[in-house]
Amino acid sequence: MSDQIAPVTSPPTPAARLIRAGWLWSILNSVLSVVIFLALWEGLIRLFDVPVWLVPKPSDFLGRFLVDYPEILRNALATSVTLAAGFGLGVVIAVPLALLMVSIGALERGLYPVIVFLNIMPKTVIGPILIIWFGVSPLVSVLVVFLMCFFPVLVDSMHGFRAVDPRLDYITRSMGATPWQAFRYVRLPASMSHIFAGMRIGIVKAVEGVIIAEFIGSSAGLGFMIMRASSFMNMELLFCGLVAVAIVALIFNALLATSERIMMPWVRPR
Length: 270
What we know:
Helices cover 80% and strands 0% of the residues. It is an all-alpha fold. The protein has helices at residues 14-21, 23-48, 58-61, 64-67, 69-103, 105-120, 123-134, 138-163, 166-174, 179-216, 222-231, 235-263. It contains 12 helices and no strands. It is globular, with a radius of gyration of 24 Å. The protein folds into 2 domains: 15-50; 56-267, Orthogonal Bundle (MetI-like fold). The longest helix is centred in the C-terminal third of the chain and has 38 residues, at 179-216.
């Protein structure tokens, strides 16, 4: 009986690894979904003969991206900078504050009702107050974005820090680990799934907040461009602004998903 020789297989190519990781399929799926949505939009508008001044077809306004790309790009960059600043500020403050509130019961009992009260206040009311205090400036937009995304990140982070089994801390401390090592290697990794869940909600609220802030008072950004286009009944530019907002939101969601994969490699899909 002859020995069977196992076939020699070449190592997977980078493209194969990319497909296996789901990245390429995720991108293709998103692009395909957008294309199908735009095709249905175009077909329904043509079928019911909706006038352009009411709802334009994608073929009517997508060309404006090429014609007005300097203005759209400039405003998209302004919105992205404000979004990144406000969301980053919210995460940097919310996560450490959540740890403090979970660790100190008196702080949670005293501070949490105040945070809930500030969160339920309509941001369309807080915006004009901030404009009175700070004037029409990018700082107002950053603060509105911060207020929109702060609460979900805080609540999910508190839930994550509280969900860690305290016996893990006792075990690590009994093995000679310092409090920082116990936090760094046990408590923080165990709670990161909850923290990123709050951040995924927070980034959606942050996009909503930056558009609200630019509606209320701003001289740049996609929200400002949309308001100006609506005042002149420029429906093509208005819908270009809406699509640009969606693209910015998708980019920030993709960056957040990439950060989650990098910082939590143990939950990476096989």
